Structure formats: C-alpha cells, structure tokens
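ok trying this again, last paste got cut off
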Amino acid sequence: MKTNYMIIIKIAFCAILSFVVQTESFSQNIDGVYLNEVGDKRIMIKDNTFYYELLDFRTLHNVGTIPCATCSIKKEKKGFFSINSIDDPMSIFIDNMAASAEHDSLDNSTLMELRVRLPSYHNRLNLEVITAFRHYFINDYYSNELIKISIEDVSNIIIKIYNPYDFISYDLDFYDADFMGTIPYYITNEIPIEKKTRKITITFNNISDYSFARNYIRGEYFKVENNQILWRGDIYKPVSRDLGN
C-alpha cells in the first residue's frame, strides 16, 4: 500500500513539474525588435502586441518605417504564437478619406473626360469606374491620366481603387482569409455629376504610397526558436530585447 502511495505522489509531482515548465515556457519574454536576414522587414513585440513593418530606405540619411500590421498575440503550444490583426481591414482605408471633385462644362461631346488625382501616390494602381449602365476597368493607372467615358445617363460616378498587385476581388464582409498587402480600397459614396458636365477631376488626398502595404492577418502563427522569430519563411533575429526595461 505504501508503495502505491509513493507512486501516486511521484506521478503527481511529475505532473506539477511539467505544468510549471510549460507555464514558464509560455511566459517567456519575447518583447523586442527583430530584423529579417535581408534587412528590409522588422517585427516589434511590445505589451503583447505584434507590429510588422517594412523599412523604407528612400531617404538617404534616415531609414523610415512603413506600418503593415498591428496584431494581438496569443500563446499556443510551446514556442508557437498566433496573431490576429487588431485593425478592421476597411477602417484602414476609409478613416479620414474624402474625395473632392471639380467640374467643368465644355461642348456637347458624347464623352466625358475624367481624371483621378492622387497627389500622395506615385505608383500604378487599378481603377473601376461605375456609371449607371457601365463599368470601366482601367489597369496600370497613374495619377491624373485621362479617362474617357460615355455620358449616357451619367448622373453620378462610383470610383473603386484596387491594389495593383491584387488580382482577386475579396469580399471584405466575409473575413475568411489573410490579406497580405492586398486589401482593395472601395469608395462607396457616389460622386454627383452636374448636368452637361464634360470634364471632371476627382482628387483623393489621403491615399499614399504606403496605403496598400497594410496587411490584414487572421489566424497566422509564428515560432520562437533560439531567440529568433520564424514567420512567413523569414528568420528574424533580435536587434534589441525587452522594450519594457
């Protein structure tokens, strides 16, 4: 009987020890700044929050950062952590966004001249122009290029702006996948067109070169091994640790 009692005590002790070891591994401090091997991506972890950034080397004497994702962190099994975006994917683009339109009545042409200006954006993108009866798809559009559209029953226009590297139309009301820099930006409000307008310029001041770098992350995992982070095929090594101290 005494032997059985000692076996039970040993089993209980081993179980408690295993739990303590596991708890310690889960409570490991991974706060810090990590840089990938190429040196163009950075992860910062602080206060149980995961920040993913690209490094911007366009300024000669000052390396900037492009924020791509801000995620909550959940500890999973030993060494693994899951991350989920904190930001709502649509709010990334629609917050503080506004379009201004300038109208100019010309002749009685059956075509309208449309220009979409993005003063803070300097790359190509894809546009969709929607009128009452037609959809115009314009790929590789650069700011202020001329678009000619039919004026038939045009009383308003809807502009949709897409990431140029995204060839799939995502339904953002159904969050079932990650968006790795592929969130399209939709202008949902209709822009009214004054009668007899033959020339219109629509300006979006708040879309920048960085707008489409944002990621929407849902249910991804990273691994911490030998004080390094393994994520999306990259190895991130620490450049500073424990930001809280």
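PB: full thing came through this time. Helices lie at 2-26, 91-94.
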